[in-house]
Model the fold of this input.
Amino acid sequence: DAGVTQSPTHLIKTRGQHVTLRCSPISGHKSVSWYQQVLGQGPQFIFQYYEKEERGRGNFPDRFSARQFPNYSSELNVNALLLGDSALYLCASSLGPSAENTQYFGPGTRLTVL
Amino acid sequence: AQSVTQPDIHITVSEGASLELRCNYSYGATPYLFWYVQSPGQGLQLLLKYFSGDTLVQGIKGFEAEFKRSQSSFNLRKPSVHWSDAAEYFCAVGDGNQFYFGTGTSLTVIP
Done:
């Protein structure tokens, strides 16, 4: 079975632009979570979606938004990019939304904001 | 609030030596605890997890971890390190529908 896939692999944007990152979960997984990993830090939780509904949100500004589609894939959108948004964005999928469901991570999208 | 502390930013060990990576957590109830490994430029791979029961858990690649409630710790161990174990290691606590990660420990293995 394929693992979690993310696209694109790398992305370069300039300040003020908008970006959309995509994630396809493992087949059968209905929950998708997004994390931001700044260089040298651990991942920080941004969003969790389950059955197309937002189930959790981390401490991120409203410039960050996400959605989940009927096939359980997900998009993360970031508006008005700042230099500080440069990071590795990780998507994780799991069978369900609660913590006892192991999260499986994709390889990430490396976003560079110039 | 939940938090995870990994006190060692960087550890260097010789190949074949034993390894222990420390993790302390702050959580009110019995936590769901995880160790992940991240190779450069890659996503995170689950090494092992603890939910309940036996406090010594076995994982992949010869790793194990011990949950000690009294010390709020979940340290990762390996009896004999291989050069391929060089990577970044993250401890995480699961709470509800969120995971809280530590800042990671970078492991260097010298021949």
